[in-house]
Structures are given as structure tokens and as C-alpha cells.
Write a sequence for this structure.
């Protein structure tokens, strides 16, 4: 197998569980040194820490405890990553929280909690990464690459999940703004917008009414998996996507086409 990220240094926020975990494993499989930037090594869906799983398969992943909502924590993570590996080639902004409430039921604390992690966290990590990338030599036509995990619900309504939808719309806009501002500096910024992805976690996301809603909205004969998103993130993080920036890649089984 050709390793598409051989020798690259990648940071994946929220990398311990779900989609982030799949991205960590995919990037490591393709030769990247991966920093798992998460608040905990615990796996929401159950199982062993992803860095241990990656090491067993011959890959490299390092967990750095990071609260993406706090600038000091983000900057400390970036400093440690650069001190250990010398540069940062890829940032995947994946960390997210949801409130699962419509507007009139969304309390200020709900809004702040979602925005602090899902949007402010992406801003803080992007800022730290771009600051570092601007100091780096060009490698494979880029000083660095950002891959933000947005959502189709950043473009269409997120039923009963107001704060989440607004945060994902912000991610989509941030992706384009960074692409426009830093493209001249050889920094690439793109996003993956997953549709309904079954990560294995329980709770609201897999209530029968939401599974039924998602199946009706998705033309493809199945719902998505974390591996589907990880493969798209790999493409955007690789040299295969050099003349591609400011793009939001829908990995949604045709949701937005229907």
C-alpha cells in the first residue's frame, strides 16, 4: 500500500472516539505521526485508547491532553507537538459537542458549551496551527493543510439541534475564510461534511426517530461509517488535493442531492 502521508505530522482534535478515532487510525496507517488532541483518552464507544491500538499495528500516535476551548491548552499542545516533531503538516478540527435542543429550549449554558468546543475550539486550533505553518518550508506544494469536520447541518437545518447547526455553519465559513486569507502563503483549508454517521455511540443520535429520518433523507442504501469520513479526510490531507482549497466535501450518501 502506498502511504499517502509518509513523514507528515498530523494533529486530530477529538481523536479518541468516533470519527476522530477513525481519522487517527487512517492517518497512522498511511505513515503520519499523529497527535491525538483530546480532553480524555477514554473511548465513548468503548475500547482501548487509540494510541495503543495504532502502536500495535506499527503506526505512531501520541496522546496530548488538550482542552480545545482554552487557548493556553491549545498553545501548549502545539508547542509540545513542534518540540517533539519539528513541524505540523496537518490539522484536523474534529472536536465537537451537541446540545440536542431547539432554539427556545437552548439555555445560554448549552449555547456556550457547544460553541466553546465546536467553534471556538476550531478557531483556537486553526490559529495555533496556521501561526506555526507560516514559519515552515513548503512541502508537497503546501506549508500546511487544515481539514475541518463540518456537517451537512451547517448548510441545512439541524432538527432540534440549534447550537450544533450554527456551530457547523461557522466551521464551513471558517474553512473558506482561511483558504482565501492564507492560500497565497501555501496553506490549504478544506472541510469534510459528514451526513449521518453511525459511530457506535448510544443516546439521542441513534433514537429510532432520528435513524428513520436519516434513512429517508439518504439516497444511498446505507448510512455512513467513521471510515467513510476518514477516507475523505485522508484525501484532503494528502498531496492529491493540492489545487483544492476552500472546499466543503459532502460525505453524506447523497443527502444534499435529494
Amino acid at each position: 500500500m502506498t502511504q499517502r502521508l509518509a513523514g507528515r505530522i498530523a494533529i486530530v482534535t477529538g481523536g479518541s472516539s468516533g470519527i476522530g478515532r477513525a481519522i487517527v487510525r487512517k492517518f497512522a496507517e498511511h505513515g503520519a505521526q499523529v497527535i491525538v488532541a483530546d480532553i480524555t483518552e477514554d473511548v465513548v464507544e468503548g475500547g482501548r485508547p487509540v494510541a495503543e491500538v495504532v502502536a500495535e499495528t506499527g503506526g505512531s500516535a501520541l496522546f496530548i491532553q488538550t482542552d480545545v476551548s482554552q487557548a493556553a491548552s491549545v498553545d501548549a499542545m502545539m508547542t509540545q507537538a513542534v518540540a517533539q516533531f519539528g513541524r505540523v503538516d496537518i490539522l484536523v478540527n474534529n472536536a465537537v459537542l451537541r446540545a440536542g435542543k431547539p432554539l427556545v429550549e437552548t439555555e445560554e449554558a448549552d449555547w456556550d458549551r457547544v460553541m466553546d468546543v465546536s467553534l471556538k475550539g476550531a478557531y483556537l486550533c486553526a490559529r495555533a496551527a496556521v501561526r506555526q505553518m507560516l514559519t515552515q518550508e513548503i512541502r508537497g506544494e503546501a506549508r500546511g493543510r487544515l481539514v475541518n469536520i463540518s456537517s451537512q447541518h451547517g448548510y441545512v437545518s439541524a432538527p432540534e439541534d440549534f447550537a450544533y447547526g450554527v456551530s457547523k455553519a461557522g466551521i464551513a465559513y471558517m474553512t473558506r475564510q482561511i483558504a482565501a486569507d492564507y492560500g497565497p502563503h501555501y496553506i490549504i483549508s478544506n472541510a469534510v461534511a459528514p451526513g449521518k454517521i453511525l459511530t457506535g455511540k448510544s443516546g439521542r443520535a441513534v433514537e429510532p426517530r432520528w435513524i428513520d429520518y436519516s434513512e429517508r433523507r439518504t439516497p444511498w442504501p446505507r448510512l455512513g461509517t467513521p471510515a467513510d469520513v476518514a477516507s475523505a479526510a485522508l484525501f484532503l490531507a494528502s498531496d492529491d488535493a493540492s489545487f483544492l482549497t476552500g472546499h466543503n466535501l459532502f460525505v453524506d450518501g447523497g443527502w444534499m442531492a435529494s
